[in-house]
Amino acid sequence: MGEPPTTGFDAEAAVDEHGDALYSYALSRLNNPASAEDVVQETLLAALRSGKTFSGRSSARTWLIGILKHKIVDLIRKEGRELPIDKVADQETPEEEFFDRKGRWRIKPVEWQVNPLKILEQKEFMGVLFQCMEHLPDRLHRLFVLRELEEQDSDLICKELGITPTNLWVMLHRARMRLRGCLTENWFGAKQ
Amino acid sequence: MRTCKEISKLVSESLDRELPFRERMAMRGHLMMCSLCRTYSHQMRQLRSVLKKASDAEAPTEKTLPEEARRRIKQALEKEE
To answer: What totals of helices (H) and strands (E) does chain A contain, helices first?
Structure first.
C-alpha cells in the first residue's frame, strides 16, 4: 500500500463506473450472462495491463468498449471453433413459415410504416430490436452478431468458424428472415 | 422464373457478397415485377442500416452487472495490481 500506483487507470473504480455499461454491451452480443461477465473481466484486465490513463469519463468508456469489442469477437470465434456451426440441416427453417410449397409468400411482406432509422433513438425500439436478436437460435445469433454488429468480413467469418460460404449465406438469410418477422410482429405490426 | 423464396435468398446474399451476373439479373428482373419481394428487399436494406447504427450504440439495454461478478472482477483486478 505504501507506494502510489504507477498506472493512472483505477481498475476498481472502473468496475463501478463502467461495469454496467460494459456488461450490457457484452450481454447484447453474447446472449449469455456468464460469458458476458468473463469478457468484462478480461477487458478491464487488459485495460489495467496497458497502463493507460484517461482524463475524461467518456473517452475511457470509448476506449474500454473498443477493447471489449475485440474480446467479444475473439470469444465468439473460439466458441464457434469448439461448437461447429455448419450443421445447416439442424437449423429450424423460417422459410417454411413464410413461403408456401410453391415458393410463394405465405405471410406477405407489408411495408413498415415508419423508417426504422428515424426511431432508432427511441429506447423502446432499440430494446425490441435487441430482444428480437436475442431470440435467434444460439448459432445464428453468433454468426449474425459477427456479421452485422461487429461488421466482420464474410470470408473471414467462414475461415474462422470453418464453414462454407454457402452455409454462411443460408444462415444469415435465416437470421434476417426471423429478425424481419420479429420486428414486424412486435413493433411495426403493433403500430400499423 | 425463380420463386419468391429463391429471390428472398438472393436478396439476403447480395448483402454478403457480390452476386454473379446471372443471379443479379434474375433478382433485378423479379424485383421489378414483384412488389412483395420489393418490400422484402427494402426491409432487408433498412435492417442493415439500422444494425449498422445500432452497433455504435453503447448500451442498447441497461443491465446491471451482478454483484457477485462485480466482486469477483475486482478481486481479479486486485491480484493483477
So the answer is: 9, 0
Q: Which CATH class is domain A88-191?
A: mainly alpha
Mean pLDDT of chain B: 91
A152 touches chain B (CB under 8 A): no
Q: Let me know if the fold of A11-82 is the same as that of A88-191.
A: no
Q: Tell me if chain B has a CB within 8 Å of the CB of A93.
A: no
Question: Residue A89's CB: how many other CB atoms inside 10 A?
Answer: 6
Q: What is the pLDDT of residues A34-51, one digit of tens each?
A: 999 999 999 999 988 887
ipTM value for the complex: 0.87
Residue B5 maps to a domain: yes
> B73 and A37 in contact by Cβ < 8 A?
yes
* 8 Å CB contact of A95 and B5: yes
Counted domains in chain B: 1
Closest by CA position to A89, among listed A166, A177, A10: A166
Fold of A11-82: Rna Polymerase Sigma Factor; Chain: A (1.10.1740)
Closest to A79 in 3D by CA, of A41, A36, A23, A49: A36
Task: Measure in Å the smallest separation between the Cα of A87 and chain B Cα atoms.
Answer: 18
Least CB-CB distance to B50: which of A95, A117, A170? Answer: A117
Mutate to test the interface with B, among A1, A6, A9, A12 (most CBs of B within 10 A): A12
Distance (Å, whole) CA A103 – CA A91: 19
pLDDT level of residue B79 (50, 70, 90 thresholds): confident
From chain B, the residues in CB contact with A130 under 8 A are 54, 60-61
